[in-house]
Write a structure and sequence with these properties.
mainly beta, disordered C terminus, single chain, 5-stranded antiparallel β-sheet
Length: 378
């Protein structure tokens, strides 16, 4: 259970944990921590958001912070003013700015960058979209999801518009969510065959998109409710975090699911023994580690845990950083995390000395810190 004065840092560290560094962020900084919870590297930028991923070249691709004004879209969760690539020292080496970007970006193997965004729905589309309830703040159904494709030099190559391919008879909004956007795409991944894997939160759907035609050629609703972070595995299956915040006829609980897209069967899942002790109504994610363990991010509580295939928790970490959200007030939320193994070539020759970071001394005292407390000695 969450308490007002939780113990933070590493809570569990067992022999079965797969050794490596863990990457996670909080607005303004993306941290790389060792298994003991000490910060060994930090990317810091005034416009940095809390979601990033380490690229094959060792740079960081990350979404930027919430824009000051996006014509109302800045009030929707996941809003971002742009996407940036930072080198190891935190210098911006590539960026694209657009106040209607949101949630997620990814770099393709050939160097293109895909970014999720919003655009205004064309006239007449809102009238055929089913489900949802009127927004309590009075905002109309206005925004639809798009995917922008950029070349390495920043040239916009294409824009995929979801409403040109969605089906209002199938892609129905959850009846408990506000009718202000269709469909709240919260992540994008590229499949081995080049198709895009998209996660649509408000319709509890993951889908494959053929980028050559734009067509949605596969959908899965399954047992999920408002899922996040769907990604392909090496075995061809899909791993995702099923938030479970609006389960029909069932209590809310979260779980991690591995499903086979060829049979649409769940082949592995993890939920807590005490079911409500794993729950996040927002964000979150899961990554399959090389040895078979799964790294899980429980966004709302700022908790990262590693579980074995047999569901034993072998590493657990509670973030000591807080920010203040206009919607939720003070929050320790962590959007996603990534495990970088010790022998990863992207870390070769890098300085990973926790003594560089004065913030580690404060963390060892059990202090909960704000996101902008950088604490870099040099």
């Amino acid at each position: 259970a969450w308490t007002t004065h939780p113990r933070t840092g590493v809570l569990i560290s067992e022999a079965g944990s797969e050794p490596g560094y863990t990457l996670f962020g909080k607005g303004g900084a993306i941290n790389l921590i060792d298994p003991a919870g000490q910060i060994v590297h930090r990317w810091v930028h005034d416009e940095l958001g809390g979601r990033g991923q380490l690229l094959p070249n060792g740079n960081l691709l990350a979404m930027m912070s919430i824009p000051d004004d996006a014509d109302g879209a800045e009030k929707i969760g996941g809003s971002s003013r742009g996407v940036m690539e930072l080198d190891w020292d935190g210098n911006v080496v590539w960026q694209q700015r657009n106040p209607l970007f949101h949630h997620e970006s990814t770099r393709t193997p050939d160097g293109r960058t895909l970014v999720v965004g919003w655009e205004e729905l064309p006239d007449g589309i809102a009238g055929i979209i089913q489900g949802g309830v009127d927004d309590p703040e009075g905002a109309p159904l206005r925004w639809g999801d798009v995917v922008h494709e950029f070349a390495a030099d920043g040239t916009l190559l294409s824009t995929w518009r979801s409403w040109e391919h969605l089906d209002p008879e199938i892609d129905v909004l959850c009846p408990l969510d506000a009718r202000k956007e269709w469909t709240h795409c919260n992540n994008i991944e590229v499949m081995p065959d080049g198709r895009w894997l998209l996660s649509f939160r408000l319709t509890s759907t993951i889908a494959f998109v053929d980028p050559s035609t734009g067509a949605i050629d596969w959908r899965w609703k399954g047992v999920t409710s408002h899922q996040h972070d769907a990604k392909p595995l090496d075995n061809g299956n899909i791993l995702l975090f099923d938030n479970g915040c609006h389960r029909f006829g069932k209590p809310s609980f979260s779980q991690v699911i591995e499903m086979d897209p060829t049979t649409e069967e769940v082949v592995w899942s993890h939920r807590a023994d005490v079911v409500l002790s794993l729950f996040s109504y927002m964000g979150s994610g899961a990554d399959r580690l090389p040895g078979g363990n799964t790294l899980i991010t429980e966004c709302a509580t700022g908790r990262i845990l590693e579980v074995t295939p047999d569901h034993e928790v072998v590493w657990e970490y509670l973030s000591p950083f807080q920010t203040t959200s206009s919607s939720f007030g003070p929050t320790p939320s962590v959007s996603n995390s990534q495990r970088i193994m010790f022998d990863d070539p992207r870390l070769a020759g890098r300085s990973l000395d926790p003594q560089r970071y004065a913030v580690n001394e404060r963390l060892s005292a059990g202090e909960r810190l704000p996101a902008d407390d950088v604490g870099l000695d040099d």
